[in-house]
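Example for tutorial group B:
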């Protein structure tokens, strides 16, 4: 079992996390029915379809991507943690710099949610 935990969101509104407690940052996790390995592969497949999304770290229960914005080349960190006991994928998507993100992190994760719908 991985001992990893996702970092908390800063007070700035440029972060969403399934483990955040406040409304501004909280977002619902993904649920999966397949094996953890199959769910992780389905998630990776969905993420491969997104532009400028680079896998930078992976282990059995964890994925870390860097998402780079097109124009200003801002980097967002997108992390996923697969909890096999709860069949839940927790995630955090956060901008590295700046304050606001115009809802980009939340929109990205809702896009991922629609891409993996029915595939986990």
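The residue assignment follows.
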């Amino acid at each position: 079992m991985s001992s990893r935990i996702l970092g908390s969101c800063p007070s700035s509104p440029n972060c969403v996390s399934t483990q955040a407690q406040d409304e501004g940052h909280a977002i619902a996790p993904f649920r999966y029915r397949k094996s953890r390995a199959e769910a992780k592969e389905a998630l990776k497949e969905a993420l491969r379809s997104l532009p400028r999304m680079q896998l930078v770290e992976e282990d059995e229960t964890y994925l870390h991507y860097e998402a780079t914005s097109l124009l200003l080349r801002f980097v967002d960190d997108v992390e996923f943690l697969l909890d096999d006991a709860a069949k839940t994928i927790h995630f955090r998507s956060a901008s590295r710099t700046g304050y606001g993100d115009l809802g980009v992190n939340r929109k990205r994760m809702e896009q991922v949610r629609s891409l993996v719908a029915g595939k986990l």
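The CA atoms of residues 66 and 77 lie 5 Å apart. Compare this with the pattern of hydrophobic and polar residues in the output above.
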